[in-house]
Amino acid sequence: MLSNSDIHELTEFRHHLHRHPEVSGEEAWTAEEIRKAMSALNPSQLLTGLGGHGVAAVFEGAEPGPTVLFRCELDALPIEELTGADFASEIPGKGHQCGHDGHMAILTGLGRLISRRPPAKGRIVLMYQPAEEDGSGAALVIADPAFAAIRPDWAFSLHNFPGTPLGTFAIEAGDANCASRGLKVVLTGHTSHASTPEFALSPALSLARLIPRVMEMGPGSNHLDGDFRLVTVTHAKMGEEAFGITPGRAELWMTLRCVRDEAMEDLLQAVIAAVEAEASATGLSAEFSHHDVFNACTNDPEATARIIAAAETAGVVRCDGQFPMRGSEDFGLFGSRAGAKSAMFRLGSGYETANLHNPDYMFPDAVIEPGVRLFHQVARDLLG
């Protein structure tokens, strides 16, 4: 188990990472800090540059056995921090308002325990993954040729979750996180003088019609089942910032969200068809681009059972939690694409914190220890 000194040092390490947040794809400094921390633990192998800035520390057991991967995230968010903490972000416009700094501290604590008592068999991979927030990181890591040598049989992850009792955990087998995708639509006609709008091909009315139309196609629900559809309009703009020009171009940004990948494909095609029908009827051209694409995340039943059993042994209390989560995760690719039995659980952040991605959100240091304890018990159960 972690000593008081361990917990103090891991807390200070989290604060150190918190001061220097880096967004998806830019995690060079963070990766180097992780590399130094892992190097001090003398892993059997230390891989860097995975899928960009990913770092993997490998701890080999004495006997053959399965490969068990534990994953956390390196990246922060493009959010101005407003916590007022004395270790607040020193990078303007960027902050760890999702708690990935805390996840890194937990995985580093797990590394400390493993280094003191390596697994009896198999191997443990501590995977510090880049670019989770934009949905690209897990796919890039898995596609990296170096990943083939550490491809896991089991994969586990966690995410801190406000509004859940501090230090507890929640998990269910099956649907865990929604699929989501950002869809950017560009409608193009041509401009005219504002005094002669009849000579323009303006997207104004089309934009006004499309916003409620696409929202009606994904109204959302409190029942997150196979029929769940949610379309959130996140941004719209039209024309120039001028009073003398009838607009000739508009953008509509939206996020599509479904519980399952096949439902996402149906919703995507329906939205595209609606935009194309509107554009065709008005003579506009329509272009589409896709951003922040996340597949649905599913918890494997056996991996889920492993977490539940480990929690009982480790004394980490299970609580209720709504599953699947509306929020998206790319961790599921370690199961669906890399072939591991994978599962992610929620780690309770308590009721005193703001919501994730709020500018005043702060990861609670008190959950570092139970997060390490639960991960460590999973490793012990599988590998001895």
TrEMBL record:
Mn(2+) binds at C98, H100, E133, H159, H357. Residues 181-280 form the Peptidase M20 dimerisation domain. The keyword Hydrolase applies. This is Amidohydrolase. It comes from Falsigemmobacter faecalis. GO terms for molecular function: hydrolase activity; metal ion binding. Keywords: Hydrolase, Manganese, Metal-binding. The Mn(2+) ion enhances activity. The keyword Hydrolase applies. Gene3D superfamilies: 3.30.70.360, Zn peptidases (3.40.630.10). Its cofactor is Mn(2+). It holds the Pfam family M20_dimer. Coiled coil: none annotated.
